[in-house]
Every structure is written in C-alpha cells, then in structure tokens.
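Q: Hi! First time asking for a complex rather than a single chain. Here are the components, and I think there are two in total. Is that enough to go on?
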Amino acid sequence: MLVLSGVAVVILGFALRFNPLLVVTLAGIVTGLAAGFDPVAVVAMLGKAFVDNRFIAVAWLVLPVIGLLERGGIRERARTIIQKMHGATTGRVLTAYFLLRQLTATLGLTSLGGHVQMVRPVIAPMAEAAAERDGPLDDETRDHIRANAAAVDNIAVFFGEDVFIAIGSILLIQGFLAQNGISVTPPRIALWAIPTAVLAFVIHNIRLWLLDRRLARRKIAR
Amino acid sequence: MIGLDAIYIVAGLMFAAFATSHALDRSNPRRWRSAVFWGCFAVIMIAGSWLPHLVSGLFVLVMALLATIGLKPGKDITTDTATRETSAAKLRDRLFLPALTIPAVTVIGTLLLPLWRIDGVPAIDPKQVTLFSLAIGAIVGLGLALRLLRTNGTTAAHEGRRLVDAMGWAAVLPQMLAALGGIFAIAGVGKVVATLATDYIPMDLPLIAVVVYTTGMAMFTIVMGNAFAAFPVMTAGIGLPLIVGKFGGDPVIMSALGMLSGFCGTLLTPMAANFNIVPAAILELRDRNAVIKVQAPTAFLLLFCNTVMMALFVFHR
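A: Yes, that's all I need. Here is the structure of the assembled complex.
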C-alpha cells in the first residue's frame, strides 16, 4: 500500500497546480523510497529510468525544420489557402483533417500528422483563418479553436490506429493473450476496433458541427 | 549494428545548440537558467549510456528545480509578420514540401531500412527502424528547409530554440513520465491498484464485471498516463479471471474494447503529457488543460459506447 504514495503525490501535485516536472520527479522519488530503496539508489533509479526513455526525445528533431518553415511563412500560407477557399469553416477544416488523420492511421501511417509537425504550422492557422472571416477572434475563442485542432489530431489517431493490424496496441494484446494461453490473430482484434473507430468519427464530428454553430452565433451577435 | 546512441547523439547536439543559443543571449539576465536546463538535457541525451546513473539522476533533479523556479527564456531571434507574409507570397506551396518530407521519409525508411544488411546481419536493429527513419526524415527535411530559405544552421538553431522555448519544461515531461512509469513498475504500483479494485468491488454479475473492467481501464490509464501500462494489469486482474474465466466471455472482443476504453482515459489525463500537455504548450494556450477539456465529452461518450458494446457482444460466442 505504501508504494501508492507516489500516485498520491501525482494527484495532489496536479490538483494544487505545482510545476508538473517537479511533481513527477518527486513522485518517482517518493515511490522509490516507499519501495524501500535508499535515497542514493532512488536518484540513480530516476537517472536510469530517464536515460532509458531517451527515444521519446528523438521526435524533437523536427523542431528546427518546423521553426524554419514558420520563419518562411508556412502559417501565413496555410491561412491564405483557407481564405481563398469558399465555404471553409473551422468545423469543416477540422473534419477534413480528422478524416485524413484517421484514414492514414488505419493504414498504419501514424507519423502523418502530429501537434508539432502539422497542427501548429498548418491545421491550427487554417482553423483560425476560417473563423476570422466572421471578424477578429478574441483570445479565448482563438485558444478554444487551437485546443480543438489538437484534440482532433489525438482522437483521430487513437481511434484509427487500432484498425491497423501491426500497430503496437494490437501486438501487445496478441502477446499478452498468448502469454495466458489464448491464441488469437491480429485481424480479429483489429476488426473489433472498427465499431469504436466509426463511433469516434460520428461523435466527434457532430461536436465539430456544433462548434461551427457556436462560432456562427458569434457572427450574428456582432 | 548501428545502435540508437547514434541518433541520441544527434538529438543531444541539437539541444546543445539550443543551450548555446541561450548562453550567448546577453540581453537576458536570466539566460543561465535555460542554458543550464537544456545543457543538462543535452548531456543526458549524448552521454546517458556511459554516465553513472546517479550522475544522470542528479542532472534530472537540477532540471526539475530550474523548471520550478521558472526558465525565463530571452526574446526570440526571428522575423516579424510582415517579412513572413512577403516570404509566404514568394515561396507559396513549396513551404509544405519539407514538412511533408518528414513523414514520407519516415514511412519509406520503415519499409526499406530492414533490408539493409551488413555481412548478413541487419545494419539497424529491426525494432528501432521507425525511430531511425524519423531521425533521417527530420535531417532531410532540415536540409530542404535550409535550401528553400537560403539560410544557415545558426538560424535553424535559433528557430528550433524558439519552439522549444514555447514549450519549456513541457518538452521533457513525457520522458519524465515514462521514467516514472518505469519506477512504478519496479515498485509494483500497478498490481496494488488492481488488487484494490478487485478486492473491494463485488463482481457477481457479468455486467458489473464489464463495467468495472472498462471504467477500470480508463481510470488506471488516467493515473498511469498510458493504456499500455493499464492493459496487462487490468486484464490479468479482472478481464481474464472474471469476464473470460467465470462468465465465458470472448477474450478478443474484451481485449479490443478494453484497450480502446483505456484510450478514452488517455484523452482525459495530464499524465499523458505528449498528447495533452505538450500540444497546449506548443500551441501557446493559456490553460494547460484546455485540450483535455475539449476532449472530455468525446472521451466519456466513447467510454460509454465501448462499455455497452462489450456488454452486448462479449458473452455471445
């Protein structure tokens, strides 16, 4: 039971809005101490665990590329394209991206997208530009549109990738069931991901349509 | 075989360039905070395989302390909106090419790199080809972007630094959370949580077992930040013994919908930092939890749908 003190640190730390990096570091130290390791061993354990997970930071190699493209005006170009397009709304831009992201994910192409590579330089500026046709955005609306763009990227890929038979989660399920003496084939697991994939598309795109209606009311109110 | 250390060194050198950009920024009196933070991270990336773990751990502590007192980066060295609009009008859709090159090279590399063999053994560990391909894609993309903008590596370092400063400590939070997951696993936190759920909830009815399993997957994921960590624990604790063992459910339907219920939890938690906290930072949102708030209604509805589908279909063979 004592090892749960780390979980308590996380919940309390996030609830009290302390710096998350500090909260997570402290949770690691508290968990290690609670499991009976001495402080020096705990710091070494933290160091090893952090070093072991360096693969996560490799994705940041795209930062200079995206930074340079922003300098070259990629966000301004994305805005121009939408401004010239008839009938483009925030919801429709995001629905189009949802469809593209989910379909490519079902083919296993999960790297086509992402918050740094696609949402910040292209999708968010497009979604904002569509809404700005009805007049300038206040900070709150702008943040809300950006948060919606990020959410589309997540939801589309989460509920698309499981339809692909060679994705990590399907292989994890297959491996885990095999360890427990149950032999299954990946296509059967992937098949049962399809209903949720369809529901995710329907539910979230209805919400995007409602977002459009709320944004349109803003125009009438003006 | 070419090891992962090769790309860790490349990534580490990039962070060293960001740290240098900060250290040279004399206009910012607090420049050492950011310089030391990214410098520590660069050292861990480059030398982590060879440093004693205690030293890496101390670097991690220094980073956590600097993040807590505030990194306070200086002003970005970049162009203004007018310059960018002129540049956008000139370069037009060519601007998208380097960005699209990254995923294209990643996909092609993932397919082709496993074929590269030196003396009959794979040149690159087959498990790591995606990571290698991503790194190669980023480097090719950088080359194209530098040519397109007719600029040099210093500008690339300043522009990369601008984005990393927009995120600040949030950029290393996913790695720290993964490290916490590792410590949780050593300490056996998952098993204790699963035991708590199974010991205190009476599961005499198939429906209750299904509801406890799907919501348990979501809640465990919210705590751990990762559905992959929740799945083995919840499935071994509740799924296999009760839904499959006691009530004769189909393990495939249960596992597929169980994992997807975990993904609903991922949409709801700051612990899944790379999906929820990092985008809020990179999009410069004022509310750290803004992305989670937008995702919450979809997540709850989908969790409900998954539970209903499992209750309807899992027991029919």
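A: Residues 210 and 221 of chain B are 17 Å apart (CA to CA). Let me know if you'd like any chain examined more closely.
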